[in-house]
Amino acid sequence: MYDFDKVVDRRHTHSRKHDMVLEKYGVDNDEAIPLWVADMDFESPECVRQTLINYIKDGALGYGGDYEDLYEALIAWYKRRHGFDIKREWLCFGSTIIDIILRSIRTYTDEGDKILIQPPVYHQFANMIKHANRTVIENPLKLQGDKYYMDLDNLKAIIKENKDIKMMILCNPHNPVGRAWSEKELQELSKILIENNIIIVSDDAHCELVHKDYKHNFLISLGEEVADNTITCISCHKTFNLCGLQISNVIIPNKTLREKYKSVLEKEHGGDPNLLGAIAIKAAYEKGDKWLDELLDYLQENFKYLKDFMKIHVPKAKVIESEATFLAWIDLREFGLNGKELEEFLNKESKVILSQGYSFGSNGDGFVRLNLACSREVLKKALERLEIALKKLD
């Protein structure tokens, strides 16, 4: 049994989540409960930490190379956990998924081209598109009851009106709304995009964090035609709390697309992984199954605790049903504050630092994203603070 109840003090460790609260939000780092950045406050798996310790004890930390054993571990993981076969030649390294997506934008589109996203969605998608001098086109998700869905009819209309859309960036599973897109949804989406020659870049960062009774569907597992039109970004950063080691992978089954990506990678002198990151994720892929299984149980219990707490103590807060990720999406619109007002109020009154919904797109205004990857004790304290603060608005 792993001790996810252990409270890990990450203050003064160069943690973005814990040590940048004052700078970003004006709340003292030591007084805040930071539940905003999407990394975990659990210890990374012991098998990973011990492997790194053993490697560092050997003394030399020079240039790395020959990562075939890492590729083998990764391929075996996806076969074991997902029943999904990845061919070695499909894989390339990247530092982060943001790095891979931005390179994909530069590789497969030109300045001025239009790129689709589906808000509310990870804010960096829009930022990367704008940074690359491309145009953001939004197909907003639809909230029906307590779950979000893709609006495929609207997508067709948007594509009809915008003939120069070249790419869609998909979040699968979807951050922040917690959808693990079904095979049927992905098949329908892919059909529309393929018919209109729109390439798909799929961010599958949270693919291992799918709740029980649901499964992750890789686009590239849905047939050769879909696979040939898809760039898939994967990483175990989120899975094993290794974000600081910055090593990710991209899967490109289509040889033409892959060679084009590799050409840009070589021009940018990229593609060499972080040495310690490579050592770490190999250990995670080889030895991390049991840790992950127990983590998923704990996260699901945290989500249930959140839902039950809000239902009893803050019934005006609506927790959106989640199928994946360790992030909860909460509707606070009934309290009558816009996003900026809500942010200032919660930071001042509760000192619980959340990701505000407006940063995920205009249809996220009035929502907050809460990181559940913390001990139950910390979650309980945060929710009690939020209850006291929100009741001041009644």
Structure notes:
With about 400 residues, the chain is of the alpha/beta class. The chain folds into 2 domains: about 130 residues, Alpha-Beta Complex (Aspartate Aminotransferase, domain 1); about 240 residues, Aspartate Aminotransferase, domain 2 (3-Layer(aba) Sandwich). Helices cover about 40% and strands about 15% of the residues. The protein contains 15 helices and 15 strands. The strands form 4 sheets. Strands 2-10-9-8-7-3-4 form a 7-stranded mixed sheet, with helices on both faces. The protein has a 4-stranded antiparallel sheet with strand order 11-12-15-14. It has a two-stranded parallel ribbon with strand order 1-13. A hairpin with a 2-residue loop joins strand 5 and strand 6. It is globular and about 60 Å long.
